[in-house]
Amino acid sequence: MRLLLIEDNLRLADYLSTALRKGGFAVDHVSTTADADGALATTHYDTLLLDLGLPDKDGLIWLRDQRRCEMTRPVLVLTARDSVEDLVAGLNQGADDYLRKPFDIDELIARVRALLRRPGEALGVKLTVGNVTLDTSNREVIIDGVPVEFGRREIDGLELLMRRAGRVVSKSAIEDGIYSFGEDLSSNAIEVLVHRIRRRMQEAGADMHIHTLRGVGYVLSDKAAGE
């Protein structure tokens, strides 16, 4: 799942980005609403984290304008403003949730996951294909009833493929879904990642399979047909 963090405090943004990535999210960070406009024009985000005290425009005004342009992604407002009036104003301008600074990082991650579990959003609690279940809250993979250890990035890739089971997922979609802007990727990073996921599943007796469509992408299914 990919998040856009709009926060002008660089130290806080770096801390939040690191913590959210450890929580299983890909995170892009911008410091102004102008940069946020540019990011939204080129990239799909599952959720936005929005500070209100931004240098080029008040966050609530920007959010109001985005909602008027029919931007539908969930928005979690992060702010030091603590009055009831500020909270009500934020919700009225289109915020889906509101978290006052300072806050606990575990609460932030829980709020983000709660937004993504809402009907029509990106994150269900448990995904199951064949005898493989992924608990997205605990980031735990169960294969044939037994917990199996996967790396963080492997879980990210597996989650994306399981959410699109039976459909073709291009290499670029995997890259966009689990890596942030600016990450240094090798030319075969996606192939290596998918190979590791396959190997772990095979070793654990998974009855689903990731098929490679040469030059197109990957399809996950619960029938072990040949690639």
Brief summary:
With 227 residues, the chain is α/β, with parallel strands linked by helices. The chain has eight helices and twelve strands. 31% of the residues are buried.
Task: Give an account of the 3D structure.
This protein has 227 residues and is an alpha/beta fold. It has helices spanning 10-22, 33-42, 59-68, 84-92, 105-116, 152-163, 171-178, 189-203; strands spanning 2-6, 26-30, 47-51, 75-79, 97-100, 126-129, 132-135, 140-143, 146-148, 169-170, 209-213, 217-221. The strands form three sheets. A five-stranded parallel beta sheet has the order 2-1-3-4-5, with helices on both faces. The mean pLDDT is 86.
Topology readout:
Layout: E1 2-6, H1 10-22, E2 26-30, H2 33-42, E3 47-51, H3 59-68, E4 75-79, H4 84-92, E5 97-100, H5 105-116, E6 126-129, E7 132-135, E8 140-143, E9 146-148, H6 152-163, E10 169-170, H7 171-178, H8 189-203, E11 209-213, E12 217-221
Parallel strand pairs: 1-2, 1-3, 3-4, 4-5
Antiparallel strand pairs: 6-7, 7-8, 8-9, 10-12, 11-12
Helix pairs in contact: 6-8
